[in-house]
UniProtKB/TrEMBL annotation:
Protein known as: Putrescine:proton symporter (AAT family)
MF-aspect GO terms: transmembrane transporter activity
Keyword Membrane: yes
GO CC annotation, single: plasma membrane
Main location: membrane
Subcellular location: Cell membrane
Membrane topology listed for this record: Multi-pass membrane protein
Top-level taxon: Bacteria
Protein source organism: Acidipila rosea
Keywords: Cell membrane, Membrane, Transmembrane, Transmembrane helix
Length: 486
């Protein structure tokens, strides 16, 4: 069985020139926390996984720039802003378009840093590696531990959203029943090792793009025939003086960043790309731009169709985009969007839960966590069964304790830790260590760090506190496992 990533390379390039034996060793999740099938959390010092990989066969360089952009869009999904629309709209007083565009600017600086670091570590594509090697092993560990939180949170917010969406379809079934059902489905499929192929993911992304186009067509028709905005009314989604608040805008931006989560997965493709020194960075940047502009268009139409001056009620906030679809396209569009987003969130949640289980297995195998529980595979399925069950339990508990908004903010907390770390790593490498001269070697990573740091500070204080407590727990684990090794 070849890995999903290998199938995607073949599907995009249509050139069967891949060394699958090598490729099977390189199953890297889109977040970039693991690298080359190794555990991304080193307790004792610098990892040698990248060095070991240098001795193994490498993939054929068959991918062009447009392949990378398509790969990035598949990872992020064209429907990315729809699930978080209601939360961002309520937090930012409308202005969802502005939050998406500001988040895009923040991601562009970081995308350049990711692309530049992929030149230095083409076999890794990992924020952990960049920070751990350029700054310190402890810094890399903190980044990796923060990303572990994201792995655990992703299936939680997917279960929360899916349960809320199904409650819209069958309101008599209680929310808790949907939560239990989705956790059982996610966990059951992962225990059986059922995973979608990359070709299926590409076709799903195409289907989502078609659904987006249908929504835009209905939306523009509704706006021009029913709303009929005139003059400055067309600009209200960008700036509405009746609801504008800079604090609320940046708080909303801290959540809207979720739209772009996954773009860093492009940096894991360095070994398969023609001219990687140029194309990885351009692919990462262009993916952010493409997703940003498409997302801005989606939420622009949504805001004109349903102005954000009046907040969505609590029962509707998680599924607000579905109700906008109901308004502009009737029951047909409501059901189409519901089905599409259910598939998207289920796919993301199942993959994220398995990614978390695989990461915990890697940590157990490397003695970063107790090996007897975390570092074992099922003898019949070769799946980290204990970890799948544990992540299923965490998902079940988390789905009852966290709202979609709080879960999204916590997830972005971990992502911003990684983004800021990569910007610092790029600054240290290109400004102080490497003789290579690059354009604005200091300015771009500094701006990326400052913008990400500013948005990170605008996260909800409760989310920041919970995130810091998670890092504190990670440091306790770090010290305990180092003491155990002595």
């Amino acid at each position: 069985m070849r890995s999903d990533k290998c199938e995607l390379i073949y599907f995009l390039s249509r050139k069967p020139r891949i060394d699958f034996q090598s490729c099977q060793q390189r199953k890297v999740p889109s977040s970039g926390l693991l690298f080359q099938g190794e555990c991304g959390l080193d307790i004792g010092g610098q990892s040698t996984a990248v060095d070991r990989h240098a001795k193994t066969p490498h993939l054929q360089r068959s991918l062009k720039l447009w392949h990378l952009i398509l790969y990035g869009i598949i990872i992020i999904q064209p429907t990315a802003p729809m699930s978080i629309y209601g939360v961002v709209s309520n937090v930012a007083g409308g202005h969802v378009v502005s939050t998406v565009l500001i988040a895009m600017i923040a991601m562009l600086f970081t995308a350049v840093s990711y692309g530049r670091m992929a030149r230095v570590y083409p076999s890794a594509g990992s924020a952990y590696t960049y920070v751990g090697r350029e700054l310190s092993p402890l810094g890399g560990y903190i980044v990796g531990w923060s990303m572990l939180m994201d792995y655990l949170l992703n299936p939680i917010i997917c279960v929360v959203w899916c349960s809320a969406a199904c409650r819209e379809l069958l309101p008599r079934v209680p929310y808790g029943a949907w939560v239990v059902a989705f956790v059982l489905v996610f966990t059951g499929l992962n225990l059986r090792g059922v995973q979608t192929s990359a070709r299926v993911n590409a076709l799903l992304a195409l289907g989502m793009s078609i659904v987006v186009a249908i929504f835009l067509a209905y939306g523009f028709q509704y706006i021009t025939t029913v709303i009929r905005p005139a003059g400055t009314a067309w600009m209200v989604p960008f700036y509405d003086p009746s609801t504008f608040s800079a604090r609320r805008l940046f708080h909303g931006t801290s959540i809207a960043v979720l739209t772009y989560i996954g773009f860093d997965g492009i940096s894991t493709m360095s070994e398969e790309v023609e001219n990687p020194r140029r194309n990885v960075m351009l692919g990462t940047v262009f993916t952010c731009v493409a997703i940003g502009l498409l997302s801005a268009l989606e939420v622009y139409v949504a805001q004109l169709s349903w102005p954000g001056r009046v907040p969505f009620p609590a029962w509707m906030v998680d599924t607000a985009f579905l109700h906008i679809g109901l308004r502009v396209g009737g029951r047909f569009l409501f059901l189409l969007l519901n089905a599409t987003l259910l598939v998207a969130n289920m796919g993301s949640g199942i993959a994220a839960q398995f990614g978390a289980a695989r990461l915990l297995y890697g940590m157990g195998r490397e003695d970063a966590l107790p090996r007897r529980f975390f570092g074992v595979l099922s003898p019949t399925t070769a799946i980290p069964r204990n970890n799948v069950l544990l992540t299923g339990l965490v998902t079940l508990i988390g789905a009852f304790l966290l709202t979609f908004e709080r879960g999204a903010e916590l997830l972005n907390f971990g992502a911003f830790i990684a983004f800021m770390g990569v910007n610092v790593a790029a600054l240290v490498h290109y400004k102080f260590r490497s003789p290579e001269k690059v354009f604005l070697a200091a300015a771009i990573p500094i701006l990326g760090f400052l913008v990400c740091g500013f948005i990170w500070l605008n996260l909800n204080h409760q989310a920041q506190l919970l995130g810091l407590l998670w890092i504190g727990l990670g440091l306790i684990v770090y010290r305990a496992m180092r003491a155990r090794r002595r």
